[in-house]
Amino acid sequence: MQTPYYLIDKSRLLPNLEKIAHLRETSGAKALLALKCFATWSVFDMMSEYMDGTTSSSLFEVKLGREKFPGETHAYSVAWAPEEIPEVLANSDKVIFNTAQQLLRFEEASRDHTRGLRVNPGVSTSGFDLADPARPFSRLGEHSPDTIEPVADLISGFMFHNNCENADFDRFDDMLTQIEARFGALIRRMDWISLGGGIHFTGEGYPLDRLAERLKRFAGENEVQVYLEPGEAAITKSTTLEVTVLDTLFNGKNLAIVDSSIEAHMLDLLIYRESAKMAESGDKEWMICGKSCLAGDIFGEFRFSADLTPGDRLSIQDAAGYTMVKKNWFNGVQMPAIVIRELDGSERLVRGFTYDDFAAALS
Ligand SMILES: Cc1ncc(COP(=O)(O)O)c(C=O)c1O
Ligand SMILES: NCCCCNCC[C@H](N)C(=O)O
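Above: inputs. Below: predicted complex with LIPMENUC.
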């Protein structure tokens, strides 16, 4: 297979999905895939056996979820445009408004639809200001019970999303208790509550059964159906970005240039200033660099058992979340193909990209 390509390995996806299924069974919560994180629909047939549907952040994601992922389709956007509403309603089971003003603006049009409102609890867990939903002056959801109360009869659910890569169950538990203290009276008037994504419950050692117990208790005490919206947790560690070394040089450090670009193919790492991950180890230190013209197009510094030479193949780990959905044509660098490794080990190319795709992205 010609590199670069994202390799989605179903045998590495499966353990995440099995944990999701266990959580659903033991807690009663429903799990919706957050398409903003991962929208590679060629594996939706498998994922939909373990999950209840999708949630979205735009009209196009709503339509993709409805078209490609059996089950429930939740439609959320930070702001809906009037012209989007008919298609949003036609393609979703629930529509979630970000503000009371949006809800009132589209009240008549959406009257026959199941409706919800995003609530910002003002507490969050995020190591990144950029991804902190409760950052100062956050536009993400209504903050005050006083603003929500007058519109509460127009909706049947709330969506809270205030976690980001949160692997600390006690912190989650504590924040949920704070949410109940502040919004409990309103929550008990609802039929369903989404607690969003950002809970790293498929990670190694996460106390899944404590989470299940907490969700079940929350649902029981408030008499609501709970939803979770996992993105990263659903696909973590399932995928690699397969690349080839094109050139090497020494400039105070050993540098290897690969046929990919962090800017174009793993943009989140650059945005959040994180290193890529490599499975190898050894005593040979190499900096792995992208082939775009950006001086800082660097995947990271890694150790290998042998020095690298042109033609060597490398697997950049954990390359599913917020990668394929954000890939771009910067520098016209060859966009990685998408390959699926089936459970029997066979590999199939599900999407390749050509010069025509590059040219068609602009006019
Ligand atoms: C409303 C909402 N739900 C779910 C998610 C998915 O989060 P994660 O991929 O961290 O699980 C996000 C992330 O932006 C979100 O904003
Ligand atoms: N690995 C660095 C942080 C990634 C942030 N995750 C994506 C965004 C998140 N779901 C959000 O709530 O904005």
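The longest helix spans residues 169-187.
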